[in-house]
Amino acid sequence: MDVYSGTAVKDGRIVGRWGGHCQVIHLKGEELTSQCLITMEVEQGSPTMQSLWTKGAASLDMAITGATGVYRNARGIARFWDIATPDERVRLEILR
């Protein structure tokens, strides 16, 4: 299991924090597929995201599966780019 955490930054300003984990669920040669779960805590609530991820993929779409606060009825997609690099970023498209 891999465990991750970091800060949420928007326009150069820290707006929250996030953390999560990925657990390997399938091995095929060198290819690792994991089930991932992430929670992001920002001022108005905490959206949660989950998906399968194949290690080494440059991008990832995660389903927004729930949340607290003003996002409590949220659904949508979180797209991650440049995973596990200093340039990693995410964009949440939240429907309420």
Main features:
globular; 96 residues; mainly beta
CATH architectural label: Beta Barrel
Amount of helix: under 10%
Named CATH topology = AOC barrel-like
CATH superfamily: Allene oxide cyclase-like
Structural class: mainly beta
Give the uncertain stretches in residue-range form.
Answer: none
- Summarize the biggest pleated sheet: 7 strands, antiparallel
Q: What is the CA–CA distance across the termini?
A: 32 Å
How large is the radius of gyration?
13 Å
| SSE sequence, one letter per element | EEEEEEE
Shape: globular
Q: What is the CATH first-level class name?
A: Mainly Beta
Main sheet: strand order: 1-2-3-4-5-6-7
How many distinct folded domains? 1
Number of strands: 7
Give the gist of this structure.
With 96 residues, the protein is an all-beta fold. The protein is built from no helices and 7 strands. Strands 1-2-3-4-5-6-7 form a 7-stranded antiparallel beta sheet, with no helix packed on it.
Task: Describe the overall structure.
It is a single chain. 0% of the residues lie in helices and 69% in strands. The mean pLDDT is 93. By secondary structure, the protein is mainly beta. It has a seven-stranded antiparallel β-sheet with strand order 1-2-3-4-5-6-7, with no helix packed on it. Strand 6 and strand 7 form a beta hairpin. It has one domain (2-95): AOC barrel-like, CATH 2.40.480. 14% of the residues are buried.
